[in-house]
């Protein structure tokens, strides 16, 4: 009987699921909405995850007995109480949870250890050392953190225009294009009408997606105000990496070069992030590595989730070289 492994990677915006075998062959890849239990509720998150599993089994004509493990790496799934609550909800659907392993979404890009920075809707940075230790910075959500994320950039852009309009804090850049873009995106005539998007009908994802417009202004219109926002975001992301640098074991920066997986749509604007990112790493106390190789995933992080889940089940998928699932974004000398 052929055996298979399921991997599910869930963020604040979307969830991907794959079915692979021990060679890494992907038989199906499915996508759904957010599976963050703190946003959806644990019962609804469990329903979504079960539906993904059911859809995989049906589409691939595979039965549950052929599934060795299910690795779920989820936004909002990093704490023991979250994992226990989700396990209990999944049990209520008569699922054999002995095959299911739940962890945080940061594990997907580095199932065998390493450093990852996420800058999507939210932001986070973490190292998983080979000795089992870990150290993170960020991941506190939009009220307490998310510095450098798409939401943070969008909120900061709106705040900058509001402060300038109020004569509270004047910008040294022309904000005309940014102000017009805000009004067009949110379909408002006055800035005061934005209040409903933050205090009445708050939708974090919708606000975060405005960062795509900011990126277009920075790139296509050479808008200095928008470029400055990305530089500031880059500084915040670099500060995340600096914060964990002393906790990264030496084997991860062989010959002084540290490989960092950069995940999330914000890194599509790397050209504008880079100056701030480098400033954050160059200023302050020395860090133990002198070069950073930023890499981007070329395959779904759900594959990494499947590899991680299999390892938790005691089956290392040694035939899969996940390091080949990346492309170099940039190499930085510090």
TrEMBL record:
SUPFAM superfamilies: Actin-like ATPase domain (SSF53067). It comes from the Eukaryota. Residues 6-309 form the ATPase BadF/BadG/BcrA/BcrD type domain. Transmembrane segments: none annotated. Its EC number is 2.7.1.59. One of its GO terms (molecular function) is N-acetylglucosamine kinase activity. InterPro entries: ATPase_BadF, ATPase_NBD, NAGK-like. It is an enzyme of class 2 (transferase). PANTHER family: BADF TYPE ATPASE DOMAIN-CONTAINING PROTEIN, N-ACETYL-D-GLUCOSAMINE KINASE. Belongs to the eukaryotic-type N-acetylglucosamine kinase family. This is N-acetyl-D-glucosamine kinase. It comes from Rotaria sordida. The lineage of its organism: Eukaryota, Metazoa, Spiralia, Gnathifera, Rotifera.
